[in-house]
Amino acid sequence: MFLGFSNQNKAYLFAGIAIFFWSTVATAFKLALEHLEPIQLVFYSTLFSVKVLFVITLIQGKIGLIKSFSKRALVQCAFLGLLNPCLYYIILFKGYDILPAQEAMVINFSWPIMIVILSIPILKQKIDIKSFLSIIVCYVGVVVIATKGDVFSMQFENSLGVVYILITTVIWSLFWLFNTKNSNDSVVSLFLIFLFSLPYILIITYFSDSFVIPSVKGVIGSVYIGLFEMGISVVLWQSALKISTTVSRVASLVFITPFLSLLILHFVLKDDILASTIIGVILICSGLILQKYFTRKSVEIS
Question: What is the pLDDT of residues 134-148, one digit of tens each?
Answer without folding.
Answer: 888 888 888 888 887
